[in-house]
Amino acid sequence: MHSLGSRLVPVVPFIFVLLWSTGFIGAKYALPYIEPFYLLFIRMVLTIGVFLLLCLWFRVTWPDRRQSLHQMVTGVLVHGCYLGGVFAAIKWDMPAGVTAIVVGLQPLLTALLGWQWLGERLRPVQWAGLLLGLLGVGMVLGSGIEQGEFNLSWPPLLAVIGALLAISVGTLYQKRYGGGVNLLAGSFWQYVSTAVLMAILAWSFETRDVVWDTQLIWALVWLVFGLSVTAILLLMYMIREGEAARVASYFYLVPPMATLEAWLLFDEQLSAIALVGVLIAVSGVYLVLKKPRLSLSSSNANQRSKDAGAT
Predict the structure, then answer these.
(1) What is the pLDDT of residues 199-256, one digit of tens each?
(2) What is the pTM of this model?
(3) First and final C-alpha spacing in the chain
(4) Looking at the domain assignment, is residue 239 inside a domain?
(5) How many domains does the chain have?
(6) What is the domain extent for residue 35?
């Protein structure tokens, strides 16, 4: 049984990324019948209930007030502003695949912000990756507008850019202030703050009218249990098995996967130039996330240091 679990570990990140990519598809299915902020409010309330049961079942250690507040700030950024922006952009007719490509720049922007705020150094290849990523997304957006594949107005563009900024800043905030908190308990408080934000937005700007179509119900079930619960539990499993440090390298698969899903399910078409842009953007993210190889001399020096330490 243990050997089977060990063999499954390398597959788990791909399942996680597959689940993450379907979030754009779930939104596309649900939003014809409900407004985006009210949909997210219902999703968050259901998710809070599930995580509360999980926290009680596993008897987790709850964070103190200060840690809980940090988790709630992370929730507003990573879940509230990110999901709110993505769902609003799709509701305003930005194609799901294009939305995924734009927010797929998150690792690039996070690396750039980390260089500015946290003093993390960027290697020349990472700078090249940043430029490639921006070029690729620019090709996708420019080609789509020129070919008439979608009419990109300011509201969806601002929404998706806001989502990109929010998840990038939220990732850095969590990295700096959110460590050491149980993942189940931390997720609970993140979803609480997100639910509060979505309630404010839904009751302020939306009618909250819902057409309870079967398609909406199944989409909501998937968004709660497939995304908000299962994806998080897979992330916990990866951390336990030592895969957490590598999971970021798989995120460059999300944009092309979401684009493929949108093409298969909704017949969202991209031109040849846009497809080249997707590949360029993915390559840029890969270059930013790729770890540098140790030179032979460095490896020998490290080995000599270990040998010296052993003696």
Answers:
(1) 999 999 999 999 999 999 999 999 999 998 888 777 656 645 544 334 455 666 777 7
(2) 0.79
(3) 39
(4) yes
(5) 1
(6) 2-292
